[in-house]
Each structure stands twice: as C-alpha cells, then as structure tokens.
Design brief:
Helix content: 40-55%
Strand order of the largest sheet: 1-2-4-3
Oligomer: single chain
Radius of gyration: 26 Å
Order of helices and strands: HHHEEHEE
Largest sheet: 4 strands, mixed
Number of helices: 4
Strand content: 15-25%
Number of strands: 4
C-alpha cells in the first residue's frame, strides 16, 4: 500500500512538472511579448533627478558616441567615487562621463 502511494505521488509530481514545462513560452513568444526598449528621453527622465544629487554632477543630456545614442553625465571635476555610483549602461544606453566644469548662467542683458 505504501509503494502505491509513493508511485501516485511521483506520478502526480511528474504530471505537474510536465504541465509547467508547457506553460513556459517559446523563445520566439518571449521575444514578441518583451517590453519595448524605453526611449533615451524616458531613461533620462527616470534617472536624471537622482544623478544630479550626486557630488560633482552638474548636468545630464542625450549625446552620441560612435554613432550610438548615449547618456551624458557632466561632472564639475573628475570624481571616481560618484562615477562608481552611476551605472555604465542605463536601459541599453551607454553612460558617458564628461568633465565640463561648473555651468554658469549667462547674463540675460
């Protein structure tokens, strides 16, 4: 009687695992349902406020490097500690650091 229970338990577990395997979408199905890549504007809007609070960061912008869109992080001066806190790629867009110095508003005269 005990061996019958073990057999039924193993059979049940096997059926559940087989059904779970069928629930996993095929690679082509996953590619079709994948979230579209956000625009660079959306990525900047999502992260810029946080980046601008880090020491030495004076600006952010959309840029291009090697004919590829990138996110520019402008630094007042080189700051390795700050740069280590910022990802090297955000949502598929490379992040490039540029030492620009401080930004100053021009006189409006």
């Amino acid at each position: 009687m005990g061996s019958v229970r073990i057999y039924l338990l193993m059979l049940t577990v096997g059926c559940i695992l087989a059904m779970m395997g069928r629930c996993v979408p095929e690679e082509s199905e996953r590619a079709q349902t994948a979230m579209p890549k956000p625009t660079i504007e959306e990525v900047l809007a999502q992260h810029a406020d946080v980046w601008l609070t880090l020491p030495g960061v004076v600006g952010t912008a959309m840029g291009a490097q090697d004919d590829q869109s990138c996110i520019m992080i402008y630094m007042a001066q080189r700051n390795d500690s700050t740069q280590q806190k910022i990802v090297s790629e955000a949502s598929g867009y490379p992040v490039v650091f540029e030492v620009s110095g401080e930004f100053k508003a021009l006189d409006s005269r």
